[in-house]
Structure formats: structure tokens, C-alpha cells
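Notebook B, p. 112. Complex prediction, attempt 2.
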Amino acid sequence: MARLAIFTERYTIRSSVELTALTNFRLAAFELGHDLDFLFKNELKYLRNYDGIFIRALTDPLNTTYVVARQAEILGKRVLDHSSAILICCDKVNMYARLAARGVPIPETRFLVESDLNAMSASRLFEELGTPLVLKAPNSSFSAYVDKVATPDAFVKVGKRFLRRADRIVVQQYMPSEFDWRVITLNGKVLAVVKYAFAPAQWRLMDRTEGGEWAKTQAVHRDAANPKLTATALAAANAIGSSLYGIDIKEIDGEFFVIEVNDNPTIAAGDEDQQNPEIYAEIISYLAGDV
Amino acid sequence: MSFRPFLHLDKGLFGRPTSPVRADVANVAGDYTYLTRGYYASLDAELEGVLSIPSTTDALDAYVVAIAMEKAKQAGIPVPEYEIVTDRFPEPPMMAYPINPFSLSGELLLDAQALESRRKGLTYTGKYAVLAQRLPHDHRVDVVRLVLGRTATAEYKEFGERLFEVFRLPLMRVRVIVTLKAYQLSAIEPLPFKDLDEGERAVLEGLGTWRA
């Protein structure tokens, strides 16, 4: 029997579908013969009492989640996310550089520093990558600090705003689509496949304007998913590590392009678990060292 | 685009299997704060497969005080009594280090009044955690500058070498709590290359070269 803990935050528990998912993890642990507690940030001195820790909170290398991951690793515990997953996936420069180095298909991508933010660079990039361009701050999440720009002026203005958050930013070719695939993987294995259908007239998972909507989730059983999709997802995951990832992929004319690898992917009851409810037991088994 | 603040290290000192810190090159930017130029220089070296210090993980291990405390403890480096809190702070005096994406800078809180005035600001009204280090009543705080583990202060020779072995940051500004019994690590902070004095630059150049 393993003693496991889910490290979570109050804002996760406020969402009913995520709370239900947390209790599903707990039930899965009990059914597999393990103990599972919830652990909050003011209880971290008890981290050493557990064999495995599962982080279910918004990750960032500078917030408590990274402390939990690194402390757990230093103490020899099993932990999801791996600290390296947080470090790499929370910095899009780091993430895309690793995907590109391993030949994983991604939109055409460049990394820019302050001296690149001028009209001449903008014109060159519009010529090379097309119009519009997508600018991303490296530490953006949930579609924040991700913008489309179609003019050199907007390129410079948005780029400078994003550079307040980091020394580099990402610029990418725009790939329009009506949905993204999300493939959830752990340790080189596909756990679940879902399609996030964007709200009408939207181009990203979360429309952050007033009254904006989240994408709608439609699950596909992992065994029924296009093998080319799952192979692309696994190639992306392997370029980053062996932690738990949610890989966002665009399908364009039968080709698959990785848009992002997310650490700590959302697993909400009734959404990502629709077709593969065993996802709870599989993650618990990994944390407990059963597999 | 790459910022290349790299010193090629002396192979005799840093290239042997028995070297306490093994590396070919050192990123001597000195400020390795997450997502800054110095941090990305380390990332570039990592992605190119260069055996360099510090790694991006080393940088965060050193600067995020809650991780530095655990790592130091495991390595036998004395640390003060500490806990991670959101509202129930220990009794002052204490050093309080925020754990949030906006600031890592520690604050000295000497009494209850100082704590009350900073409690909400440090935690963003309970949203983020803080690492609180208890300060013994009889103590002093020293700040030590380390260049590849070397310091001009003889008193800190061994402590500095050990910190470099464990944390692997070529340039460090270290806050040390000195008690009657021990030197305790409080925090590791940036020591930008531009702030080095002539003696410190000479130490660097004695341990490596600017060209391969």
C-alpha cells in the first residue's frame, strides 16, 4: 500500500468538474489499496510523510507547485508533474526549442529578443511566416499573453508588452482551425484523446474577452484515435520527458502539428475522462509505483 | 541572438572525475533569474549539449529559497528552522521569502508590528505562500560573495566551497545567518557579473579562460 497525496489549491476545488475528478482519483486509489490525502500549501511540512505526490494546481516554476515537485524529488518521492515538466512546459521558448530539436512537427517558430522588435523584423517575419503572426509570451497559459498580429505596428506593440514578462518571446506561423486535439500521455503511453472545439469565431482554447467561452470537449476512445495523431503526440511527449502531458495538436489536411505541450493537463470529470475513465487508476498506479 | 557570458573552465580543476564540480564552461552572467538573459544563456548551453554550470534547474534550486533549504539540508549544510505558511506565521524575528511569480526578495521582520504590516502584502492576502525562517535572538546576518566558490573572506572559505559544490552557481551572493553554533544558509541571490570588483574578476580569470 502506498501513501499518496494530491497537492491542490482552493481554486481547483471551486470547480465542480475538477472537484469530482479529484474525488475520482481518491476512489481509484482506495480501490487499488492505497491511501490518498489532499494536501494544501500550508501543510507542506507533511510532504515527507507520503510516497507519491500528484500536483493538481496551476503550475509555474516560481510558485508552490514547483517547490512541491522539487522537494518531492529531492526526498526521493514519486511526483507528477516532474519538476522538469513544469520547467520546460511553462517556458514556451524551452518547450518549442526541444520539439524543434527532435524534429516534431510544429508551426514555423522563431524566438525574438528586444532588438528584433522593429518594423524591419516584422516585415521580414510576415514575409517568411505569413500574415497574421501569433506572438506568445514564454510563460503564457490558458491563452493569456497569446495574440495574433497583422501589422508591423501591432507586432512591435504586442511584442514589447510580452517582453515585460521575459527576455525572449515566441513568434509563430498562424494555423487556423476549428478545433485542437488534446492527447494526454504519461510515461510514453496515451491515456486519453479529446477534441476541443472552439467557440464560434474563436481561434484558441479560451476566448479571454468579456463573455468569452471555453472550447467544448468531445472525447474519442484512445484505441479509435488516428494512429498518426497519437504517434505525433508521443513524439512530442518524448521530446520533453516522461511526465504527464496534455499535447495540443492541429490537424490540417491530414497532417498533424503540435501547438503546445502542457504539463499538468486538465482532467475534468465528464470531459477528458469521457471515453477512458481508467485514466484515474492509471495515474494512481504510476504514482504508487505499481507499474 | 545568444547572450554568451561563458568562461571555459580550467580542465585540471573542473574536468576530472574527482572534481567537486565538473563542467567545461561556466555561465558567469551572475543573475540566473527565471526567464532573464542569464537564465536563457544556461538554457542555450543545455540545449547545445554543453557541460555547463549552472543548469536551469540549478538556477531555480538556488534562488527559490524553499527548494534551497531542502537541498542544503540533504547535503548537510546548516539551515535555520523554517516553515512554509500562508497565514500562521511563526513569532518574529524572522526572514520571510515569498513563493510567487512576482518576487523572491526576502524581508526581515523584526517584530509583531512589522509582521502585521507585511502579512497581506507578502502573501497577496493568502493567495501565495511564504517561507518563514526563524531568527534566533542572538544572531547576525552576513552577506558573502562567491566566485566559483571562492571568497575573499577567510572565515567563509569552507562554507563557500561547499555551497558551490551543492548549488553550482558560478556567481552567488549568499545571505548567511550566523549564530554562536553555526553558519546557516538563509538565501542565495544574484551576483551580476557587472558588479564584480577587480579582485573577483581576477579570481574568475585564474580559473578559466574566455576562449576555448
